[in-house]
Design goal:
2 domains, globular, 81% helix
């Protein structure tokens, strides 16, 4: 694996854990609350990481896309289809979790993002734009790409999807994250353009955040109960 890819991964890891040190520093030097310090540093660290990662990947950008890369029209089409594929995979995984594994619906990770976004709307730039770019570069272009060069699609997609799920620190819903990871990997291989899974990932996050932004926790809980009832009807429960 090229050395610059290791630096990209290291940059991502530093970003993930930098808040432990720098958020308290912001709180001490600026007249803001602890909560605001965490939010501000999250936005700063994600933005800095994105700049560093794009700088490190300049050689990849200069080489351009493969001759087999999908043309613009196909890229747009697969981006639209990919959103539906990702939501379908997520729905099937959620159904398996609920009906077969007995896991309660609702992601703690998603709920935390929504709670923070309601309190600080500027934070939405992370799940909507910055995080999808960084995560697709890390998990699809680099990790999946390296596995795919040595194994077949299924093994490479499985390994990268599992890592993608674990990094979200929500192991209860690992199946949901892994299912989306499979879809993103398929789109990357199908189009030979990392931009396609980035667009699909960003669109999914934006739709979810926008749909839940105005909902209270009680509204979300009620919708989850209704979803469970519908699933029981369709599955003959």
């Amino acid at each position: 694996m090229p050395k610059r890819y290791w630096w990209v991964i290291l940059t991502y890891l530093i970003m993930q854990f930098s808040g432990v040190i720098f958020a308290p520093i912001l709180y001490l030097v600026l007249p803001i609350s602890e909560f605001d310090a965490v939010i501000y540093w999250s936005i700063i660290s994600f933005a800095l990481a994105l700049v560093v990662v794009l700088f490190l990947l300049r050689p990849d950008m200069k080489t351009g896309n493969s001759r087999e890369a999908a043309p613009i029209g196909a890229m747009i089409g697969w981006s639209i289809i990919g959103v539906f594929m990702a939501f379908l995979a997520q729905g099937l995984a959620a159904t398996i979790e609920i009906e077969l594994l007995g896991i309660d619906p609702g992601s703690e990770n998603t709920q935390q993002i929504m709670d923070i976004s309601r309190a600080a709307p500027l934070f939405m730039i992370i799940p909507a734009i910055i995080a999808p770019v960084l995560e697709e570069i890390i998990f699809r272009k680099i990790i999946f790409g390296q596995f795919y060069a040595r194994t077949n699609f299924f093994i490479a997609a499985l390994l990268s999807a599992l890592i993608f799920g674990f990094i979200h620190l929500d192991p209860t819903h690992l199946l949901i994250y892994a299912s989306m990871g499979f879809v993103f990997a398929f789109l990357y291989v199908k189009t030979k353009r990392i931009l396609v899974p980035i667009i699909v990932h960003a669109a999914m996050n934006t739709i979810v955040v926008a749909a839940q932004f105005g909902l209270t926790p009680e509204d979300i809980e009620r919708m989850q109960r209704e979803l469970e009832q519908m699933q029981m009807i369709f599955l003959g429960g």
